[in-house]
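Recall that a protein's primary structure is simply its ordered list of amino acids. Everything else, from secondary elements to tertiary packing, is in principle encoded there. The following example makes that idea concrete.
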Amino acid sequence: MAMDQIVIKGAREHNLKNVDVTIPRDKLVVFTGLSGSGKSSLAFDTIYADGQRRYVESLSSYARMFLGQMEKPDVDSIEGLSPAISIDQKTTSQNPRSTVGTVTEVYDYLRLLWARVGTPHCPNCGKEIRQQSIDQIIDQLMALGEGTRVQIMAPVIRGKKGEHVKIFEDARRSGYVRVRADGNMYDLSEGISLEKNKKHNIEVVVDRLILRPDVVHRLTDSCETAAALSGGLILANILPDDRDILFSQNYACEDCGISIEELTPRMFSFNNPFGACPTCTGLGTQLKVDPELVIPNKSVSLLDGAICASGWNNVRGDGISRMYFEALSKKYHFSLRDPVEKLSKEVMDVILYGTKGEKLELQYDQPRGKGVLYQAFEGIIPNLERRYKETQSDGVREELESCMSECPCPTCGGKRLRRESLAVTVGDLSISDYCEKSVIDALDFVDQLTLTEQQMRIGERILKEIKNRLGFLRSVGLEYLTLSRASATLSGGEAQRIRLATQIGSSLMGVLYILDEPSIGLHQRDNDKLLATLKRLRDLGNTLIVVEHDEDTMRAADYIVDVGPGAGIHGGNIVCTGTAEDIMNCKESITGQYLSGRKKIPVPAKRRKGNGKSLKIIGARENNLKNIDAEIPLGEFVCITGVSGSGKSSLINEILYKRLVTELNGAKKVAGAHTDILGIDNLDKVIAIDQSPIGRTPRSNPATYTGVFNDIRDLFASTAEAKARGYKANRFSFNVKGGRCEACQGDGIVKIEMHFLADIYVPCDVCKGARYNRETLEVKYKGKNIYDVLEMTVEEGLEFFSSIPKIKRKLQTLYDVGLGYVKIGQPATTLSGGEAQRLKLASEMSRKQTDAVFVFDEPTIGLHPKDVETLLKVFDTLIGNGATVIVIEHDLDVIRSADYWEAGGLDGRFFAHQEEIDLCWRLRSRGRGILCVPQSVVYHLGGGTLPQGSPRKTFLNFRNNLLLLYKNLPERRLRAVMRLRFWLDALASLQMLATGQWRSAAAVWQARREFHRIRKDFEASRWENLTLTVLDPIPEQGAFSLLWQYYVLRHCTFDRLP
C-alpha cells in the first residue's frame, strides 16, 4: 500500500452504499454534496470515528475508562489512517464561565502577566499601593481602641486540598495550642481530621490579647512571628464579633488601610474564589426579576390579568391578591380597571416594590368571617425574589425564573473579578478592560506596551505567547471577537475556527484534521485568511478533510470528493473525485453543474406586490442601531442584508421577533430598545425557524414531529384485526407500554456496557429491532405492519397512503420541502441541520399560514446550492398561502430572489464606482448573474473614510482604475486605452499641481509604478489574483470622473436585474 494515501473500502455507515474511496495524504481535501448525501457519514462517522477508536485502543485499559470511546464504524477496512482530530460545530461550551479568552488559553497567560508585572492600586482611592511594614500593621491594630480583644493568627494554608496532618504536627511541636480550620477553632491536642479532596483554610493562633498601651511590644513580637510563619500575611481576628482583618507585608494602601496579598495568577481568575467577585461568584451577571416580564402588556388592566407573575396573575379570582389590590387602589386613588400604561409612576412603584413598611387597611369577607387587617404590602418584585430564594422546589424555581432576566452584577459591573483584582493594571489597563478589546486592538496594545527593564525580563516570554495566540485568531478571520465574549454566544463556525487557531499553535504534523464547514458565518473578505490557515496546517505535514459547500474552498482544494448524487437513499455513492476541474467536467455531479455555471438558481420573472399592509418599526435603538425607522411589507419575501455587525440581527431578532412573539404568541420576552411597532394587528402569529435539532433522542422522528404518526396509528387501530383484538391507537406507539417490545422498551436496540471498551448497541434479540411485540406486528394494513410503515421513505409512503387524504397531505408537505428520501420513522438524531430546518417548515406548512410571519436567520448556512433552490421554492409556497417571510441573509442567490430588500442608510452612487464594477466582473466570470441594487451602502473594513483629495485616496483611486483596465480589457484594446490613460493621468496631475496638491500629484505617478509592478508579478494569472482596495464612493462627480466611468461602463457590459 502506498504511504501517501488513505484507502477506505466498504463504507456502509448510515446511507453510504458500500463505497470505496482513496484520499491523498498531506493534502487539502474537500467532501461535498447535497445535505443528507452522506458527506458527514463518510468524514466523521467513518474516517474520524475509526481514527479516534484506534488511538484510544492503543492506550491502557485503565486510561480507556476515562475516555469516551467511539464504536467501530460499519466499514470493511481503512488503511493509511493517522491520529484524527475532529473540529466540528457541535463542541461550543454552554458554560457561562467559558469565554473566548479561556477557550484559547490566552487568559491563562494574561493572568500570569498581570500577576508578575502588574501594578496594584487601592480599590478605594486608586493610589498605587506598596508593601506594609510591621510598624504600620501595629499602628492600625492599636487604632481599634483600648480594650479590644484580638487574636493574632498566621494563615499557613489558604484554599489548598489535603488533610494537612504535617501542618498540625509542626504547629504542636512549635508550642502552639490552637488552630482555626475552615472557620472552626480546634485544640492541637485533639485529633483534627480534614477531608482530603476539599480545599481548606488553616490559621495558627499565635497570640490572644486585649489591646492596651503596655502590650505594644508583645503585639509586635506576635505579628512578626505570624508573618514569619505565613510568609508575610497576618490575620487579626477581632472578638467578640468574630471579624477578620488581613494584613500583608507585601501590599497595602496607607491612606485607606486596605491590604492585599501578594499578586498570584489565581487572583485574576473568575473561576477561582480568590479572584471571583463574591456577589456574582464570577459570572458577571445576576438573575433579577424584570418588571417588563412581570407586566409585559401595559395596555391591559390589573383586573384583566396585566400581571403575569406566579401568584399574582389572577387578581379578579384570587381573594388574597384582590384584597391587597383593592386596598392599594383605595389608598392611592386608582382604578383596577384602568390599563397599566395609564397608572402614575408612584402607583407603579408601590405595586412593584411595595409600601416600604406603610400599612394598608385590608378588608376581608370570607365564609369563616369578615373583618379588617392592617398590614404592609411587600410588593410584587420583592415577593418574587423572596420566594425564589426560599423555595426548595425546582418547578416553582423554574416558574419564577420566567419573570427574571440576567442583569450585570451590581458589585463588579459585569467584570467578574474582585475589586482588588480589578485595581491591578498593566499599561494603565485592568485585565478586564484588556479583555473587552477586540483581538486586533489587543494585539496593538501588546505591541505598544511599554515596560521597565526588569518587567520586560519577566514578561518577555509571556508577551510572546499572547501575541502568538492572538495572531492565530486573527489568521482565521476572528479579529473582531473580544476575549471576554462568552463561548455560548459564538456561532458554530466561530467556535470551530477558534479550535482551528488552537491547533495551529500546537504545530503538530502527521495528523488528520476533519472540519465541518469552517466558512460558515465568515465574511467573504476573510475567506482568504481561512484558506491560508488551512493551507498552513497542510504544509506542516497534515491531512485536512473539509466538509464544505463553499465555492472558493472547493476551488482552493487539492482534491474533491463529491458524495451523492442525491440525498438519503438517493445518495451514499461517490459521484466523482479529483480536482475542481474534474468535478466541473463530470456530468453526473450536481455540485459540478453549479460550480461550472451550467446550472443556476433562477431569478423570479415577477416580483410579488404583497397585500398592501406593512410592519413599521419606529426608533430602533438596540445595540448599534441609531434610532432608525424601517418598514417591512407583508405578504412578500423580505430580505434583510448587510455586513456582519451592521445591526440586522438587532433589528429583526432582538426587536421585531421578540415584540411579535410576546404580543402574538404570549411568550415572555423583552424586546430590544425601540419606540414602537405599528401594524402588529395585521398579524396572527410569528414563527422563527432555525437549524437546531428537532429532538434529542432517537424516539423523535419526522412522523411524530409532524403529527402524521397519530393519523397512522388511528388508521391501524381502525383495521378489522385491531378492532377484533380490542386494540386502540396507543397500542401502536413505541413510547408506552402495551404494544411496544418491553425487552428494549421500544428502542429496537439494546445497549451493552463494556466498561473500559466502547459500549456496544445491538438489535434487540426479542423484536429483532422492530420495536413492537409480536401481537402488535400481526396487525397489518395493505399487507404492511406498523414497523414496515415507519421504515418507508416519504416517497413510498405517499404512494402507499394515496387513498388516505389526511395522511397523504402531511407526507406531501415533507416531499415538497425536499425530504422525500427521509424515512417516516428516521431518528431525529440522524438528521442534518438543513433537514431539521425543512422538517420544521413542513410541520408549519400543514397548518394555516394566513397573516403569519416566518423569521429565518441565515437559513442557507451549510446548504448546497441545490438545497438553497429547494428552500426558495418552500418560501414561495409559504407566501402563496398568505404568509410573510423575513430572511436575514448574505447569500446573493437568496437576495436576488427576494421581493423587497432592506439595506439601511443608502447611497445611490455605490455601483458607479470601479471596485463594484470589478466585483460584478468577478461574479460574472464565475457564471453568476449580477445583482444591481439601487440606493445601496457599503461599510468598509477598518471603518474609516479617507479624506477626499488625500494622497492615499488618490493613489488607490488611480491604481484601481489601471488594475480594472488590465483585468477586464482584451490585450489589443488595452494598449490603445493605456495611451489615452497616460495623457488623462498627466492632465490630472497638472491640475493637482496648479491647486497646490503636490503630494496628490506625486501619488498619481506612484500609482502607475505600483500598477506596473503588480502587472509583472501576476502576468501569468491575470484573471484570478488581482484585487482592488475598496474605497468609499466619490462625493462629487466631476467631468474627469464622469468621462472615465462612462468609458469603463461602455467597455464592460454586465447582466442587470430589475
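The first strand starts at residue 5 and ends at 11. The longest helix spans residues 971-994.
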